[in-house]
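Reposting from the mailing list since nobody answered there.

I have sequence plus structure tokens for a pair of proteins and want to know whether others read the tokens the same way I do. The first protein:
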Amino acid sequence: MIEAKNFIEDIINEELSEGKVTTVHTRFPPEPNGYLHIGHAKSLCLNFGTAEKFGGVCNLFFDDTNPSKEKTEYVDAIKKDIEWLGFKWYEIHYASDFFDTIYSLAVKLIKDGKAFVCDLTADQIRETRGTLTEPGKESPYRNRSVEENLKLFEEMREGKYADGEKVLRAKLDMASPNINMRDPVIYRVLHATHHRTGDKWCIYPMYDFAHPICDSMQGVTHSICTLEFEDHRPLYNWTIENTEVEHKPRQIEFARLNITNTVMSKRYLKKLVEDGAVEGWDDPRMPTLTGIRNRGIPAQALKNFCEEIGVAKANSEIEVSYFEHFARDFLNTEAERAMAVLSPVKVLLTNFPEGKTETLEFDVNPNKPELGKRTITISREIYIEKEDFSVCPPPKYFRLKKDGYVRLKNAYIIKCDDFVTDEDGNVTEIRCSYVPDSHSGNDTSGIKCKGTIHWVDANNCVPFVAKKYDYLLKDATYPGQDFSERMNYDSVHVFNGFAEPYLASSEEGKAFQLLRTGYYKKTKGDVLTLGEIVSLKDGYKPAAK
């Protein structure tokens, strides 16, 4: 037994102590009809993590029962995402592995008088299903003989009927208070080439029928799924009992992950890709796991987030700033520090000797002193951010202004003596004097500075492109709005600036904290390109204890 942290672990502990199970066996069951997104990460971490905690195993199971939407491309992407998160599956299975078994069990239900072939259309079935307060109406085909049902079902398999012309339905109770139990469809005709079985089949089982059978065939003990399947559990249990499979798994539901300002639907994500609103499934703005990975979010930060939000029985929504908090917290510990200026303006240090270049040191990462120090240079000309100088500063402005002092990070205090503007009033050059005896760490000047700004040496820097990202959805909530109304079509902001040369020589994919700017990842580009991972500012405010 382990110390339980959620109700699922409580259930498993109880079953282990009672001897109902001896080894915990879970499965992560994505449908390969798109790329996994951050919502799937919770289920992924829960299924693999629960098995690990109890010394059990977790399968990777692909629910490939709808060939019209599924691709091998998605299968490969899902495997890569799981490996990125550091999980290892015990076995890989597909629903298509069990199609022959599922078909034979459907035949068994027909022979037992528990399933029938129905000619009603999907709309007619929906219209006769009833409501939460009114029972449904039985199909006029419900009382076909076993022999006729067997003949029609075989003809469905042989391809005699068109899509939607006939379905196989379980014969349950049209007056059941649970609408899912009102003669649900368990097989349908679908003429589509399957990504694994080709054209062998033209009928495919519905998820609610295939799901429990596949769980049983794999030896799954605990089928952990999201809360929308709670009302489907009676059908899950009915299928297990009435197909008389040997192994009987238990379905347990938990609340799915919802995050503000985030698209949490594979259908909408696919539309974004197809419409060209993003550059692909791995666009850094996408909440797909491949997009999150491409953005530079560390896998461990995502796992920490999923662990911390916990497992609940009721749906809720998490602030996107909470997820960013975990990324920022991890990167703060791990990322090297560097300096870069996104929107540069030149500063001339008028009293700095011409032709002189001075070498300075600063900590690679103050949280990891074992990494030591790195050198940068300073000379007569430097670049600072345009926003770090103000011609008409507001009250309590502690950055650079006329006749004001500011400290250059890891360097000297400077004073603004004058500035130059163009005909439009834009500042083109700032003229300052530096204080020689104010070196950072050895300041004897006696000058008190409230402001510190970052900078780069204009004579020892490289041009770079910075990409800052905003949310794909411009609002956190959407009452009365559809998806298109919420889209933020101005979610990428590009800057052309200068960075210290070390960034250009570092390896692709490395994450940095650009001082006073944010956390950035080095990406591909003809010039040095840095993509924002997460800002420095933490929008998450922990609750007071």
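The second protein, same order (residues first, tokens after):
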Amino acid sequence: MKTSIKRLVTIVLALVMVLSLAACGNGKGGSGGGSDLAAENWSYDTANYYSDSEKVYNDILGGYNEYYQKALQSDNVSERYALEAIAEAKLLDSAIMLPLSTRGGQYAISRAVPRTINSTLWGNDSDRFHNAVVATEFVKPADRDAIKAKWAELAGTGTFEAWVKQYMTDNGYELKDTYTIPYNTDPQTWDGLATYRAADSEAIVNTVDGLLEYDMENVQQPALATSFEANEDNTVFTFHIRQGAKWSDSQGREVADVTADDFVAGMQHLMDVQGGLEGLAGDDGVKIVNAQAYIDGEITDFSEVGVKAVDDYTLEYTLEEPCVWFTTLLGYNPFFPLCRSYYESQGGKFGADFVDDDTYLYGKDPDHLAYCGPYLVSNFTEKNTIVFEANPNYWNAANVGIKTLTWMFNDGSDDLKSYNDAKKGTIDGANLNTSAVEAAKKDGLFDEFAYISDTDATSFVAFFNVMRNQFCNFNDASVGVSTKTVEEAEAYNQAMQNIHFRHALATSLDRGSYNAQSVGEDLKFNNLRNSYTPANFVSLPEEVTVQINGEDVTFPAGTKYGEIVQAQLDADGFEVTVWDPKADNGLGSGDGFDGWYNPEYAKSELATAIEELKADGLEITKDNPIVIEIPYPGNVEQYKNRANVCKQSIEKTFDGLVEVRLLDCVDEEGWYYAGYYPDYGYEMNADFMDVSGWGPDYGDPQTYLATMTGAPGGMVKSCGIY
């Protein structure tokens, strides 16, 4: 397993401080008695953190990683998909994560016209709003249905945008050139090459263009590249850069021309800063020649990496092996350009000279950023407002439909704020939680304007921390303070090494009741997801035979990804359902039902775990239960209610053998620092964390599976590993 040297150095340096941070006893103790969880009492050997991570990873996720690596070696697409599905089954069977839901599938009202914002399932382009069509009043459900039906007819013809604008006008709607939406997390950086967090990239993507961009018909169009060609085996891709495109500063002043070298500079910076997505250029992605070697520090001369500016307007990528989905990545932030001269003017350096010190200003805020996209950021007031104004120097300025894009902060503490703001016109749409549904019905808006939003490919999951080493928030020791004793912490960590205990925990949560706290009782199953990669994400282009537990199994062409995942889970005896052939009106789906909640199976698995753990010296009784801590933001009612459902459901299933304690992190920021902002597993301050998920970067299941490999920067950190 290859691991970044720079990341390793960071870990080693950070671990010097961990012992004083990790154990934050508050003197409260816990129901199990014993010593308070204070720094002087906590015995975990942080000096061995990395080696312990490797051992735990191999013990728990070794089977997943074995099949994942086999999939990467296959040059047959159907075999690759089948092996990825088997790897996913092994991942789910490890019960280190619990799929929860996807975006959408809930009541909403909106002035944005459906299908006028890109709906491709991967990458960043669905967060670009410059071509959105927005009305001055809410769009009625009947019109939404008609528009979506016409989109299905016209997609790929290049005529939908003109048609939908005419349709809206003919049906009495007035269109506008502003769009205002709510948001709940400020970007932590404005450098799109230095982050893997959606909260950052969703804002940044509106300030920079990539080589290609998916339009509202989900067709990839030229952006900063006017054309490209690939060689016969899809290992060399040559792009012709748009001449006349400009870089601007935040004041709209031109600073440079966009050239091929900007993409070379961007790729090197991605690998220097190592913000978490650099692997997409290396072994976890498209395998650009020598990219992984540069990331790992095995080579230091970036000219040896397969990204070349042949001349000012010709860019060439050379891959180590064929990659037919390479172009699906090109609107995503790891492949963004970087204005080399502006970056250096802000203290930026390349290679071994890169350092994030006080002289380094690039991307720290929108005023230290070079723009080549449709918008400049004219106002960024933290936890208040982000305003994007049309960039006058943008190469396609004449076709930017939304001239002002505004984000309005909402911390979620008021269940009715988004609804009330949408009703007043302060924002242009809102998802309707249970409180908002009742308010909309009372106001007469529900029947006239409410619709059920589309689901997408984002998978929100709960992660189980299998080697917890943090007992307060790493940024603020007064937030999220654990109530566990040392003995309770040690018992939990030991129990989580047992697969039957993890199976029991993963199948003990009534996910429907959990989800109802956000979307309402009548829609509680609507956006439930039962796998990490959506079950319908890909299907086999041709028949393939693979081995499942040593036996040859043939899957015909057209078999959905989720069907193969289910076949492996059934063979392994893990009693969960991730694929239902009768779902979605008989078309089959992995969404829309609760295939995990199985309290009888959970009790049986816990009984097995208790026997095995007793043999290892850990007794679990009602007087000595396993204590699980779940953080939540106390100021957000629906999240507070969800946490309480977790407590009630798990404790009811296990009848006193497992105790759930809820940690109030005060607000969403405290909650994010408990389990979203940490960069390393040892910073994760939770046993069960339901604050994050993953959206696909490109059109292959690898985009999900690669996040759970044993290296820093992925989602596996959410399980306390690496």
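Reply #1 (J.P.):
I read it the same way you do. The radius of gyration is 25 Å.
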